[in-house]
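Sample entry (303 residues):
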Amino acid sequence: MVTPPARRIMRIAIGSVIVGLAVLALKAVAWQLTGSLALMSDALESLVNVATALAVIVALRVARRPADDNHPYGHHKAEFFSAVLEGVLIVIAALFILREAYAGFLSPRALDAPLMGLAINAGASLINGVWAMILIRNGRRHRSPALVADGRHLMTDVVSSVGVLIGVALAFATGWWWLDPAMAVLVALNILWSGWVVIKGSLSGLMDEAVSDEEMATIRRVIAQAASDDAALEAHDLRTRHAGQVTFIDFHLVMPGETTVEAAHDLCDRIEAALMEALPDARVTIHVEPEHKAKHSGIVVLS
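Predicted structure, serialized as C-alpha cells:
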C-alpha cells in the first residue's frame, strides 16, 4: 500500500522532471541566442537535473516496494543509489564543461544578443531557486535523501547561475570575452564540489551510518519515558541506521527475572508504538534480557 507521504514524494519527483524540462528549454534558448560557453554550461547542468530527476522517480518506485524473501529489510536504500548516480552525472557534466572552456580560452569570441540571453537565463534561475527550496523542505519533512540531494543540487545550480549572469554581463560591458570561458570553468568547479557533497552524503546511508545526535537523543528520551512506569531496569546496546525514509532501531531491554513473557511483550509493544509516533517510519527490534545482563554503564536508565 502506498502511504500519503510516499504519494506526495512521488508527485514532487514528477514535478522536478517538469520543472527541469522547462528550465532546460529556457537555458538552451539563452545559450543559442548568445553562443556563450558559460550559458552553455548552465544549460548542460540543467540537462543533468532532468536526468537525475528521472533517476529519483525510478529510485522512489523501487524504494517503496514491500519487503520480500530476497530483501527482508525492504528496498529503502534504492534512494541512496539515485543520489550517487546524480553525483556521478554531475562530475561528468563538469568535465565536459572544462573541455569546452579550454577551447573557449584558445579562441574567445563576442556574444550575440547577450541582454536577451541574460534575461531568459535569470528567469530560469528564479524558477530553479523556488523549486529547490520546495524540494529541500519536503525532502526533510518526509525523510527522503533523494529529494534533499536533488534540491541541494538545484540550489548550487542557482548559485552558479548567478555567477554566470554576473560574468557574462561583465564580459559584455568590458569586451573581455575571455570572461565567458572563465565563468564556465568556475561553474564546472562548483559542479564538481556539489557532486562530491552529494556522493559523500549518499555513501553515509549505504554504509549504515547512525542517525544524527538530535534523533539519537529523541530515541533515548522516548525509550526512557515509554518504560518509566514499568519494571524495566535499563536499555543498552542501542544501535540505529537509516535507509531512505526508514530508521532502523534495535536495543537490549533489561527486565527483572520474574517478569512474564506477556508483560515483557506488552512493554515492548508500548515502547515500539512510542518510537513510531516520534519517528513514523521507524523499524524497531527489542531484545529482552534478564537483570543479570545489565551493564550499568553507557546505558539508557529506565527506572
